Every structure is written in structure tokens, then in C-alpha cells.
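FAQ

Q: What does a record look like?
A: Structure on top, sequence underneath. For example:
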């Protein structure tokens, strides 16, 4: 049975029926949960359904991806059932200028769930990474499709060191987490996303009124640090990361003043130190 999901008992499959019973109910944000054995990209698959289904809250989970990607099309691969790879379809009725907070909201929700369930000290690297120290545990990709937003996540759960997709990555197993069962982890993450999302949308996307900015900054590994930011065109900005603004932009104080950077503005964000802060060059 080479294609059976039960051949690797250390990595059991997720149950679509169990997840649906736990998460899809009247009044819930989540309208459907589908689990597929493999696909190219859960973000791409959900994006194709945006025009067909007006309802938000669809969740697509893949046991493996052949074309998973992060920001700027960077590839992200992992062995089947070794992580949580999923996307969610959201239709936030908040001003477009404030929707940059959505990926940060999902990151905060995931970090909160992992800290509580897995007991791992996860921090948030702006704009879209969950970190343990200097090692990447998870990445998030938010993509606008018409008036909807598809947000995907890849979280390393049971990967062993030799299976890590990139250098300076890690997994919950490597970090000796208290829980490496993907089912309760996924339920906890989606419940945290729902809680933060409802508060944020009820506040009209105001990150301060929803308590989102304060919570994000408390767990940020970027704010308060000297950073080196690679920009398109081989430009570099160095300075002090001072905060995140109302639009979810990173604020960096450099030699020529303060810069507000969106996720789409940056190629890489790295920690300093930076001996000569200055403007982009």
C-alpha cells in the first residue's frame, strides 16, 4: 500500500470529518473544511473558487504540496503530513488601507495557539514568519483575489533536521514541543484566527481598538531591533525598527528619517547590527 496515508504511523493523516465537526457550526466563521492528500498550492486552489462561492470561511488543508510557495514565489516543500499546510478564504469588510494587518493577525493567532498548545516560545518576525530564536517555524502568505483575501500557512511540525526545507528553519519536534499532534494544533490555530478576526472586523480594521497592535508588538522579534532590509533593485535600508503603523506597515527609523514599508516593498528583513544607518541606496 505505497500510497496509503497510514504507512507512516508517526505522521497520521488528518480527518476531514473530525475537523468539520469541531469547527463548522452555526455562527462559526468557518463554513467548510476540506482535506486533500496532495495538491500544487492550497492558496492557488482556494483562489480559483473565489468567484464561485460568495461565502467566506472556506479552509483547504493539504497533506502535501508540490508547488507550495512563500512571499515573492519562494518555494516551500516538506514531506507529506510532516506539517500543517492550509489556506483560508476571508472577505474582511474593513477599509482596504487597513487590510495589511490581516497576515499579521493570522501570524499572531498562530503564535498564540502554538505557545499555548505546544509550549514553544514563538515570536513574530515582520511581516509573515513565526520564529523560534533565529529559526523559522512557519510562514504565512496573504494574497488578494478580487475583494477576498486568501491566507495560507505552512507550519513545520514533525520535520527532522535533514528534512527542513530551508536553512535556519526548525519544527515543533526539533523544539521538543509539548504537542506535535496536528489535529489539535490546527483546531487551536483556526479558533484563534476566528477570535482575532471577529474583534478586528468589528473594530472596522482598527488594530488599536481591537487590541491587535499591542498584542503583536508584545511578541515581535523585529520591533526594537536594528534591521537590514533588502529592497527591490538591490537597494538596502538599514535602521531601527520602531513599530507597525495603522496599515500594518513596518516603521524603520534611518539616517534620513522614518520609512513605512509594506510587505510588498521588501525582499528580506534581517536583524542588524547596522553600524551606519542610512537611506535606501
Amino acid at each position: 500500500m505505497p500510497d496509503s496515508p497510514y504507512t507512516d504511523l508517526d505522521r497520521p493523516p488528518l480527518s476531514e470529518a473530525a475537523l468539520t465537526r469541531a469547527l463548522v457550526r452555526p455562527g462559526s466563521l468557518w463554513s467548510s473544511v476540506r482535506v486533500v492528500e496532495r495538491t500544487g498550492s492550497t492558496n492557488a486552489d482556494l483562489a480559483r473558487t473565489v468567484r464561485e462561492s460568495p461565502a467566506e470561511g472556506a479552509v483547504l488543508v493539504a497533506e502535501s504540496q508540490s508547488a507550495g510557495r512563500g512571499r515573492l514565489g519562494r518555494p516551500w516543500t516538506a514531506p507529506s503530513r510532516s506539517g500543517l499546510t492550509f489556506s483560508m478564504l476571508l472577505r474582511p469588510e474593513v477599509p482596504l488601507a487597513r487590510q495589511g494587518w490581516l497576515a499579521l493577525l493570522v501570524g499572531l493567532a498562530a503564535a498564540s495557539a502554538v505557545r499555548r498548545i505546544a509550549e514553544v516560545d514563538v515570536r513574530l518576525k515582520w511581516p509573515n514568519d513565526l520564529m523560534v530564536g533565529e529559526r523559522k517555524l512557519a510562514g504565512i502568505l496573504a494574497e488578494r483575489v478580487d475583494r477576498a483575501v486568501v491566507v495560507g500557512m505552512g507550519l513545520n511540525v514533525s520535520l527532522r533536521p535533514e528534512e527542513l526545507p530551508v536553512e535556519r528553519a526548525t519544527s515543533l519536534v526539533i523544539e521538543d514541543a509539548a504537542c506535535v499532534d496536528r489535529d489539535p494544533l490546527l483546531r487551536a490555530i483556526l479558533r484563534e484566527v476566528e477570535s482575532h478576526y471577529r474583534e478586528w472586523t468589528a473594530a472596522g480594521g482598527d488594530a488599536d481598538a481591537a487590541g491587535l497592535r499591542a498584542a503583536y508588538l508584545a511578541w515581535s522579534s523585529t520591533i526594537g531591533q536594528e534591521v537590514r532590509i533588502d529592497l527591490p533593485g538591490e537597494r538596502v535600508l538599514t535602521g531601527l525598527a520602531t513599530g507597525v503603523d495603522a496599515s500594518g506597515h513596518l516603521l524603520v527609523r534611518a539616517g534620513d528619517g522614518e520609512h513605512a514599508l509594506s510587505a510588498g516593498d521588501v525582499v528580506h528583513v534581517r536583524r542588524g547590527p547596522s553600524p551606519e544607518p542610512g537611506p535606501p541606496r
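Q: Is there anything notable about this one?
A: Residues 157 and 180 are 6 Å apart (CA to CA).
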